[in-house]
Design the sequence.
């Protein structure tokens, strides 16, 4: 509770810093016994959405709108997911990607918090359908980021041009930094999973900690330096593998 109207949240045209102090829960269409917190959405200028699904035990989620693909990451709790071919069991730090039009029902087997990314799929010249992809954060290979052994990333989705998104974790030993302030046309949605530090977005520097969320719009200069004594880790969505002109009709 903050009686003086302070918030750490800041929303601009190029980026947003969404702190838990401003979260508002809302019903999620297509979900039962579940509340949503919409963190990033097209309303702020993003070409994707990021939200938390807060599921009661027995809560259920059905597919997003036609043409929209979905990536879920289990922050706490557990779900079982019924697909056409299989039943998947996902627990903390497990993830799953469901292509657009993929029938699936997510059922919480305990009280569960999911981080969800969704976007309208941008097909490329191939009309091959994308596969369902599942895995676990810890079982995914850690690779040094641009040769720095103190910054490593784990890639969750195949490095395959049919996918139009990448989702990774970026992990930083205390004191490690991104090697330079990046500026790129691809957007990011980010959730701080552990640790924290200073995030540069545009011309602003933000102290950031676990549970904070960032939207980095196209061309938003970005840089991170890790502080503290534990490894800092964030979940990161990024657009991938599409020509710049393919966005014109899909913004
Ligand atoms: O690869 C990336 O775009 C990534 N290093 N960006 C980021 O962490 N903000
Ligand atoms: Mn980046």
Sequence:
């Amino acid at each position: 509770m903050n009686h003086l109207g302070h918030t750490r949240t800041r929303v601009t045209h190029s980026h947003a810093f969404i702190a838990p102090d401003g979260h508002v829960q809302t019903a999620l269409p297509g979900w039962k016994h579940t509340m949503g917190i919409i963190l990033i959405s097209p309303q702020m200028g993003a070409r994707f959405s990021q939200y938390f699904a807060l599921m009661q035990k027995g809560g259920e989620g059905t597919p997003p709108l036609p043409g929209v693909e979905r990536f879920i990451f289990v922050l706490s709790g557990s779900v079982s997911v019924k697909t056409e071919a299989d039943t998947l069991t996902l627990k903390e730090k497990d993830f799953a990607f469901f292509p657009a039009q993929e029938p699936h029902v997510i059922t919480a087997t305990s009280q569960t918090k999911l981080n969800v990314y969704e976007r309208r799929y941008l097909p490329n010249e191939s009309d091959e359908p994308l596969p369902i992809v599942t895995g676990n954060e810890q079982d995914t290979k850690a690779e040094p980021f641009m040769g720095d052994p103190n910054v490593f990333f784990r890639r969750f989705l195949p490095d395959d041009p049919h996918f139009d998104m990448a989702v990774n974790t970026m992990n930083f030993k205390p004191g490690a930094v991104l090697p330079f302030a990046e500026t790129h046309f691809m957007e990011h949605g980010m959730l701080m999973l552990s640790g924290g530090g200073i995030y540069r977005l545009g011309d602003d520097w933000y102290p950031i900690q676990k549970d904070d969320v960032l939207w980095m719009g196209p061309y938003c200069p970005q840089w991170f330096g890790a502080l503290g004594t534990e490894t800092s880790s964030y979940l990161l969505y990024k657009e991938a593998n599409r020509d710049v002109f393919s966005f014109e009709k899909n913004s």
Summary: The radius of gyration is 18 Å. The domain at 24-135 is CATH 2.60.120.10 (Jelly Rolls). The pocket of (2S)-amino(carbamoylamino)ethanoic acid (ligand 1) is lined by residues 170, 178, 182, 188, 222, 236, 238 (CB under 6 Å).
